[in-house]
Design brief:
The chain contains 7 helices and 10 strands. By secondary structure, it is of the alpha/beta class. The strands form 2 sheets. It has an 8-stranded mixed sheet with strand order 1-3-5-8-7-6-9-10. Strand 9, helix 7 and strand 10 form a beta-alpha-beta unit. The longest helix is centred in the last third of the chain and has 11 residues.
């Protein structure tokens, strides 16, 4: 008997039927590549009770078929660990705007909750961590995305109402020219404490 993977449409239908959902998590072993190529249009799903959203080891192509439709204004824990499924052309700016743009306010509120965060930039991915040490019940986010042009998005999040007392430490290794240009923009923000 052949096993069938769940589709993005089925996941979105499940979420739409669960308005009281408080925690939602997907791991790569749960969906494989079955969500790639799913329809990219749909009605936003309101999940006002959702406190934790965790997408772990998921292709960005899959993330792009789920996150754009989730509205979770009261989310306190946001975890995203994504990778590229293939080398097809990929519009990073469009992905960040469409998939993560409506989470910006949530990220800002979490940044306000903590005194510092850490951004690590590599040639082909970025990691942004705002998580208190040894506290797993507090608000936090952890974002690891295979995008080398995320600096403008980070600067936009930080530049709109984030507490000036919040300190961002930026580590960069083997970054491209686009990120170097973006780092100049980051360096102008009061939140940036260290460029290393």
């Amino acid at each position: 008997m052949m096993n069938e993977w769940i589709s993005a449409g089925q996941i979105l239908a499940l979420l739409a039927a669960s308005p009281l959902l408080e925690s939602f998590s997907i791991g790569v072993s749960d969906v494989g590549s079955s969500l790639i190529g799913s329809p990219s249009t749909g009605t936003p799903i309101q999940l006002p009770n959702l406190k934790k959203l965790d997408l772990d080891g998921i292709a960005v192509e899959v993330v792009g078929n789920i996150l754009p439709f989730i509205r979770a204004p009261n989310c306190e824990v946001f975890q995203l660990d994504a990778f590229r499924w293939n080398d097809d052309p990929f519009d990073a700016t469009e992905f960040l705007t469409r998939s993560l743009g409506h989470f910006d306010a949530i990220l800002r509120s979490i940044l306000y909750f903590h005194s510092s965060s850490q951004l690590s930039l590599f040639q082909d991915h970025a990691q942004w961590l705002c998580k208190p040490p040894k506290k797993f019940d507090a608000q936090y986010f952890s974002i690891d995305i295979p995008i080398d042009s995320s600096v403008p998005w980070v600067a936009d999040v930080l530049g709109q109402g984030v507490d000036p007392a919040h300190r961002l430490t930026v580590f960069f290794r083997d970054v491209n020219a686009e990120n170097i240009t973006g780092l100049k923009r980051l360096s102008l923000l009061h939140n940036v404490q260290t460029l290393q």
